[in-house]
Write a structure and sequence with these properties.
- The complex is a heterodimer.
- Chain A is built from eleven helices and 15 strands.
- Chain A is α/β, with parallel strands linked by helices.
- Chain A has a five-stranded antiparallel β-sheet with strand order 3-2-1-5-4, sandwiched between helices. A five-stranded antiparallel β-sheet of chain A has the order 8-7-6-10-9, with helices on both faces. Chain A has a five-stranded parallel β-sheet with strand order 13-12-11-14-15, with helices on both faces.
- The longest helix of chain A is centred in the first third of the chain and has 17 residues, at 53-69.
- By secondary structure, chain B is an alpha+beta fold.
- Chain B has helices at residues 3-13, 61-74, 87-94, 103-117, and strands at residues 26-31, 38-46, 49-58.
- Chain B has a three-stranded antiparallel β-sheet with strand order 1-2-3, with helices on one face.
- The N and C termini of chain B lie far apart (45 Å).
- The relative contact order of chain B is 0.24.
- The chains are: A alpha/beta, B alpha+beta.
- Chain A binds chain B through residues 226-231, 246-250, 267, 269-272, 275-276, 303, 306, and chain B through 13, 29, 31, 33-38, 40, 56-60, 63.
Chain lengths: 350, 122
């Protein structure tokens, strides 16, 4: 979603828009830190920093003010609502939302310049962090996962400290931090952008159908791979970004293997599993899972071990695939697979 | 273990000629639409003789074994004689009949080979 907002922002021809960013939350928040909303001078809205209701309304109201006079504000908003509390319909807690006016057509606007770097990084399959002061000061600093940086927070000591924190945020997630330098302290929001996960699904059966539907909600790009034209059809996979029919091992080898690629084998057929695993066991994909029982997985591993694959390489295949959620139906299995991919992607362990 | 089974497993585990052929001048790809076997056979034909035959496949053991046996068999054969290779040759090479319902798996390489002979590529 953030990518869509940045795209909208950088293509906007409005002289000013207001960007609202969720920078911190205590209690329960329905949105991820970094969630954004754009408020245009024409009243147009895009995105949201909460699930809606009174909070987004307050942000929009503040945005309308900033459109007129410019600058940046930090809104500290309580999610409590006395009436809602009485009837048990409030989550409770506080959120901080940074609201700032941006000039989309001004390349000299530090946020606009930072977003140009974000677009460039995402187009080149790189993750990137944008650091912006929360306390009202101007400036923006970016660091991508190739080590490239642009912009500044205003002084070299701040930039050096921001670089160190941004390196950590690249592998974790968006958060705020207080930087301390000889010239004082500054609160900065570190916003992480990463290319979407590409989910390659080998085998166009029922589990694959559920995977493509659910993955769409998770902003994943899906590629259906099968050798059977009658299975891998647009009618069966209306949500898939790409449907490829051919030799599965050749098709998967055409996908650049990065940590943002997840491959799941749900064909439950060794005729695809063995050749695809031969292609991927030594490729740096972020996730590799295969549907099947422990016994069957052991047989596949034995065959591949006999071909020279090491135990470490074979251990990369997650099988039985997915988190053990207890479900057996195709949608339930698909859910457990996606849950495991999200777990691996976020670096969490069960 | 029957001779048929031993042959299939041997050629599945150690397939002959399973590789791409960069200087191929004939090729064809075949698929079994329901089971999903996919195979590509590439040939280098020199002076009307099959100088080299190789295959790549994402396919079952029976299909791979048959492709392995066939590519061994036709190397050095005049291209025109490939039409004479038939189902009975496949049965003899496997030393038995495929199980009911698996005949398509065994015949896919043969069908693909015959189409490859007639399909010149540049």
């Amino acid at each position: 979603m953030a990518d869509i907002l940045i795209d909208a922002l950088t293509r906007s021809d409005e002289p000013h828009v207001v960007q609202a960013t969720l920078v911190s939350a205590s209690g329960s928040s329905s949105k991820k830190i970094g969630a954004k909303m754009l408020v245009g001078a024409s009243g147009k809205l895009l995105g949201g920093v909460t699930i809606g209701g009174c909070v987004d309304a307050q942000v929009i109201e503040a945005g309308d003010e900033l459109i007129a006079r410019g600058g940046k504000r930090l809104l500290d908003i309580s999610l409590d609502d006395d009436e809602a509390w009485e009837i048990g319909l409030t989550c409770g807690g506080n959120v901080e939302v940074m609201v700032e006016r941006i000039a989309p057509t001004d390349a000299g606007d530090p946020v606009v310049a930072a977003y140009a770097a974000v677009r460039d990084a995402l187009a080149n399959d790189r993750a990137i962090v944008v650091a912006t002061p929360i306390d009202g000061a101007p400036g923006a600093f970016t660091l991508d996962d190739d080590g490239g940086s642009t912009g500044s927070l205003g002084d070299s000591a701040l930039d050096a400290e921001a670089r160190a924190i941004a390196s950590d945020v690249l592998s974790s997630g968006s958060r705020d931090a207080t930087l301390t330098t000889p010239s004082g302290t500054r609160r900065v929001f570190f916003d992480r952008y990463a290319p979407p996960t590409t989910l390659v699904i080998v085998g166009a059966g029922q589990i694959a159908m559920s995977l493509t539907a659910f993955a769409r909600e998770l902003d994943m790009r899906t590629i259906i791979v099968d050798g059977r034209e009658r299975y891998a059809t647009r009618e069966r996979f209306p949500h898939a970004d790409s449907i490829r029919v051919g030799m599965p091992s050749e098709i998967v080898s055409e996908v650049a293997p990065t940590k943002r690629v997840a491959v799941v084998l749900v064909a439950h057929d060794y005729k695809y599993e063995l050749p695809v695993l031969r292609q991927l066991l030594r490729a740096p994909v972020g996730y590799l899972g295969m549907l099947g029982s422990k016994k069957r997985a052991a047989a596949v591993r034995d065959l591949l071990r006999g071909e020279g694959f090491s135990d470490d390489e074979l251990a990369r295949v997650r099988t039985p695939v997915g988190l053990d959620l207890g479900g057996k139906s195709p949608p339930e299995v698909a859910l457990s697979i996606l849950a495991e991919i999200v777990q691996v992607r976020s670096g969490k362990r069960a | 273990m029957t001779a048929y089974r031993a042959i299939v497993l041997e050629h599945f585990r150690h397939p002959r000629n399973r590789a791409s052929l960069p200087d191929a001048n004939r090729a064809a790809e075949g698929a079994n639409p329901l089971c999903g076997d996919r195979i590509r056979i590439q040939l280098r034909v020199v002076d009307d003789t099959i100088a080299e035959a190789r295959f790549t496949a994402d396919a079952c053991a029976l299909c791979i074994a048959t492709a392995s046996l066939l590519t061994e068999h036709v190397r050095g054969m005049p291209a025109a004689r490939v039409t004479l290779v038939d189902q009975s040759w496949v049965r003899a090479a496997l030393d038995g009949d495929p199980p009911p319902g698996r005949t398509r798996c065994a015949l896919l390489p043969l069908d693909t080979l015959k189409r490859a002979v007639g399909n010149a590529i540049t």
